[in-house]
Design goal:
By secondary structure, the protein is of the alpha/beta class. The protein is 38% helix and 19% strand. The protein is built from 19 helices and 16 strands. The strands form two sheets. Strands 1, 2, 3, 4, 5, 6, 7 and 8 form an eight-stranded mixed sheet that branches. Strands 9, 10, 11, 12, 13, 14, 15 and 16 form an eight-stranded mixed sheet that branches. Helix 2 packs parallel to helix 4 (121-134), helix 11 runs parallel beside helix 13 and helix 15 packs across helix 16. The termini are far apart.
């Protein structure tokens, strides 16, 4: 095996912390590929290691992890039977030790010289990865230079958090394969960690020298709960503002946005990006954080942007992460509604909203929602279908935006104030109708919100099945 000073992943881990787990695995020649045995021996000599994957225990930022890392010096970091088995065993050790699993990829993909015995490592590792989800253990993938082929299209892409190394080539097919198949080499704007970030495929791109601190910070967010005592009791409601006054207050430029309140909820925090389907809609700001010692996923709508299909897909992929890591969910609602543009229609905006309702009502973790500013129609309500709905006293929620209502009812957007009065869109009405559970005092403040959220999270009880059953019953019975 390679000496510690030669390890190609030293930039990820605490100095001297890696403890290689030895095994007796040796690559065979399952299909009798010409010259393969000679190529193996030459790689062992040149790389100073016996295979393309190193695996063992390490620490990052003082946090214990299980690590599997590709070594590109060994046959281009290709994944054959031994590499796949080492990763699978490393995942299983993470489960046994109850520690996060870290994968550092630097690979050209499947090892051609082992034929289909190499390719079947893809479903093998996906099967192994499911054990981490069952154990609610974090899985972080680092996409080094390069990360392509079957490794990316299986185990690497299924991480809870995906981090790209700055400058890395990242793509399903490597540039030479693209040129062979399409007749044209990909542009410089494609197949990079930066383009993957822009397309919502990774959560962040980090320079080599910042990786250890970035991963260490993320592990600090995801460490087990250390709950602080919550000094909180629901406050008495103040005087209800008029619908017009509430609408003005909810839309005030100086009112904190959802992302601003989300960042005040707790620390440390890690921002999630992308829907993993080609978009990173800025209208939704998701982050992992700790609210008074409680791990949580926060989904904050940003009123500065209108959520399109990608925002709802991003929400669903983050909710799936919350299930895998057993994280409670907090949603902060402040939007005039879903984007009604032609592009959104073509992207299936109605289907995406419906899918988010379904995901929220099926999630086996607690959900506390809060209307921090404006709730506009079904696009906003999809983020509110949880166990508890809070609302700030000067927030508003409406079946349709007042301007649109005025245009439909009277063909006069100038009568938006009249529409607001008629729609009774204040938070106090939301409470009276039995839709909201509690009103929070103005002005919006992250520390007060953190105490309210922690209090309600602590009072949501029941098994996973009970949570889903009670949440569905809550929304099934509203309006009867």
């Amino acid at each position: 095996m390679a000496r510690s000073s030669e390890l190609p992943f030293e930039h990820l881990i605490d100095e001297g912390s890696f403890r290689s787990i030895g095994d007796d695995l040796v690559s065979s020649d399952p299909i009798g590929f010409p010259g393969y045995q000679d190529a193996l021996e030459a790689s062992r000599t040149a790389a100073g290691t016996d295979e393309s994957v190193h695996a063992g225990a390490a620490t990052i930022g003082g946090h214990d992890v299980e690590l599997a890392a590709f070594d590109f010096r060994f046959l281009g970091g290709s994944m054959g039977e031994v590499a796949g088995e080492r990763i699978a065993r490393s995942i299983e050790r993470a489960i046994e030790r109850s520690v996060p699993f870290i994968l550092r990829a630097a690979t050209g993909g499947a090892r051609m010289q082992e034929g289909m015995r190499s390719l079947v490592q893809m479903p093998k590792l996906v099967a192994a990865r499911s054990g981490l989800a069952d154990a609610h253990l974090p899985y972080i993938a680092v996409l080094g230079d390069p990360t392509t082929g079957g490794v990316l299209a299986s185990i690497a892409a299924l991480a809870d958090i995906v981090i790209g190394e700055a400058g890395a080539t990242v793509g399903f097919a490597g540039p030479r394969v693209v040129e062979t198949v399409t007749g044209a080499r990909p542009s410089s704007a494609s197949h990079t960690a930066a383009s993957a970030l822009g397309n919502g495929l990774v959560d962040t791109v980090v320079g080599l020298h910042e990786l250890r601190a970035s991963i260490g910070g993320l592990l600090a967010v995801l460490r087990p709960n250390e709950k602080e005592t919550v000094g909180y009791s629901p406050a008495a409601n103040g005087e209800a503002p008029s619908p017009g006054a509430a609408m003005k207050a909810a839309r005030a430029v100086e009112r904190p946005t959802g992302p601003e309140l989300a960042r005040q909820l707790g620390e440390p925090a890690f921002v999630l990006r992308g829907d993993r389907a080609g978009k990173d809609d800025a209208a939704l700001y998701p982050l992992l954080t700790r609210i008074l010692g409680r791990r949580a996923l926060v989904l904050a709508l940003d009123r500065k942007s209108t959520p399109g299909p990608g925002a709802f897909r991003k929400a669903r992929r983050c909710l799936e992460l919350a299930v895998r890591l057993a994280l409670p969910v907090v949603t902060l609602i402040d939007t005039k509604g879903a984007d009604p543009s032609e592009d959104s229609e073509a992207g299936g905006i109605a289907w995406e909203i419906a899918a988010l309702f379904d995901k929220m009502l099926s999630l086996p973790v607690p959900i506390v929602s809060c209307v921090t500013g404006e709730g506009g129609s079904g696009g906003a309500l999809a983020f509110a279908a949880g166990d508890v709905l809070l609302a700030y006293e000067h927030s508003i929620f409406s079946v349709i935006g007042p301007e649109a209502a005025a245009a439909i009812l009277w063909r006069d957007q100038g009568r938006a104030g009249d529409a607001a009065e008629a729609l009774k869109l204040t938070a106090h009405e939301l409470l009276r109708l039995g839709i909201a559970d509690e009103l929070l005092p103005e002005p919006p403040d992250g520390k007060v919100l953190a105490r309210a959220v922690a209090y309600h999270l602590d009072h949501i009880n029941g098994s996973d099945d009970d949570l889903v059953t009670s949440r569905r019953a809550r929304w099934r019975d509203l309006g009867n």
